[in-house]
Amino acid sequence: MKMEHGKKEKRCKSWLQRLAGFTTLVAGFTLLCGLGAILSSPPAVAANSPLLGVIRWDCFSNSTCADLNSLGPQQYHDRVPYFLSIDSSTQVSGNENSQSTIDQQIQYAYDTGIDYWAFVSGPDTSPNVAEAYALHKYLASDYKEDLDFSVIIHRYNAQQSWSQRVDQMVEWFEEPTYVKVLGDRPLVYIFNVADMESYYGSGTPTQTNIDLLRQKTVAAGLGDPYIVAMHWQLNTAVSQLNKYGLDAIGRYGYSGLNGSQDMNNPSPFSALAQAQADSWDDYANSGKPFVPDISTGWDKSPRTTTPPPWGGGGGPYYRQPTPGEIAGHFKAGMDYTRNHTTAVEANTVLAFAWNEVCEGGWLVPTHAQGTERLDAIKAMLNGVGVNALRNPGFEADMDGVQSPKSWSTWGGSSGTHANADYTESSGYSWSWRLTHNKSAAYEVATHQTVTGLTNGLYTLTAWVQSSGGQTTAQMSVKDYGGAEVIRNITTSSTWQQIQLQHVPVTNGQAKIVFYSNAGANQWIRVDDVSFFKETY
């Protein structure tokens, strides 16, 4: 059972044991990237830390893959989840509905420090349909003890009666990993009580259904469910709570107040984050307990360009946030919860979302960003600075290319060796890595300058391999306000992590460089580079 104060004791198990088991499961697919050894264990969480919940809305099974069409156009391939395939400039394919894929995602969430997934749960008529398949795979997972769960009640139909649905929910509540708040109360969200009213009838019929959920749960020896009314409008949520004796109010997603209606000229994410943070006070001032919502973005342009059967496109539109912006907004929401323990009595926040990629809110790793967003949240939870580099895992091009995105190439003193700098498959993690190599002697450098840094001490890390034999093979930091600092890359046929610590940035910027002066067919390989401010 998840308690509202701190993480479960089971999270103290040997991380090496967990990682070894998971590595076997996915045949060598390596989870750890970005922040390297400093983040190679689950986040250390302070006592009374709010529970971090993240919404899952699951639609990527073979029988319910409508969003695949919306992700088809190339301009949306930057948000395609890693478990899907990008087949062409107009087509995406794939199926999330496998045990290994959900197992893998559980470990991503656990490694980040997420406490629970809130599964959007419709009528459960088949284990393979939308809003059902991922929860079934979660419940069958050998790794579910690493991540708790709750449900968001959504949709109603005659194929599963309400009484049957309540019986099923009570079975879920009895799971050791179901989220409990305020002692022993199962945490339940209702997505817009008006939908329940529309199907069953307003007033007495809906009240009877809610009462039945409470009665059967208590009869099973569990606590009274803690029911949160979700609605986009604060006044409506308060009205639903008052009408049916619910326990708290909340929100599923947030589109802001004055976002751009022009898909080609979106508003900055900072405008969305600030408006959402301001709204937390409005919810607190309602006098009703509430669960703060945290956004990872809002941009439904894929559904505007290629609508699914249910529609749902249109503005407002916001630019996709950087990983650092997401982490900063998460921190603001969790800090707000720590400081408003009466208004947020359940001590939890709920983030939009794990996989709402077509609505613009996601944390699930993607082909373009890998685990950058999760890395940033994990860094925040650990009190470690966020990676300042862009495309640190060389995944952004989604292909083998010369001169990877966000990095620049120096072709040596002769200017003729730029083609010795390229990405290729089989990285330390994910699909791609940086390689320096050529069939003739060469000199080349791959570099990225980061600006806007807060002055202070920084650490640079990378995972590397080397054939050895080069005149020079090195990683360095320069142009930071002091003399260049260098770490040699030594011979190794296996991946090893190297680092430069305590780099004293004094001018708000730094240039990260990988340099080779080598003979024919002498090579280095680089992956998962990180440059972050030391906060310990």
UniProtKB/TrEMBL annotation:
InterPro entries documented for this protein: WbsX
Sequence segments annotated as region (Disordered): 291-314
Protein name: CBM-cenC domain-containing protein
Pfam families reported for this sequence: Glyco_tran_WbsX
Transmembrane segments: none
